[in-house]
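Reviewer 2 asked us to include a model.

Predict the structure of this chain.
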Amino acid sequence: MRWIVILSLVLLAACSRPAAPVGKWEGGYEAGGTLVVARVEIVPGGQVRISAPDLLNIADTRPEAMRRHRERLAAELRNNWAAVEPRPFDFDGKTFRKPGGIAPQMAWDERTNQMTLQLYFGANPALPVVLRPVQEFNDNPFAAG
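Predicted model (structure tokens):
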């Protein structure tokens, strides 16, 4: 009889969903004419806040104009963050998906606590934007720490 209880507990633990990591991540991506700044916050209970303003098709931008684009997107991210509503995601211990969805939206590396945001622009393959964990968000999401 005791083995039935133990087996039931083991099966119940195996079937339970892993808890999403609680924390904050931010970063940016700049390559191939694409510029993205991003923030992710996961609150207790697994709700996720995400914002990732972007500019596309800016490959021929001069360095000074690119600096202004980065500053503008960082300001947009910062100024609009309070309005970002938390939303649910399915989490399997590594990958976040929209509820019932198939396409990965984020991937979490437990070992490094790094989050990779998967962005989809049109019919192109997902663009991975690597985010680093932070205690507090920075005014400049490209900042190192």
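Residues 5-14 have pLDDT under 50 and may be disordered. The radius of gyration is 18 Å. We have added this to the supplementary material.
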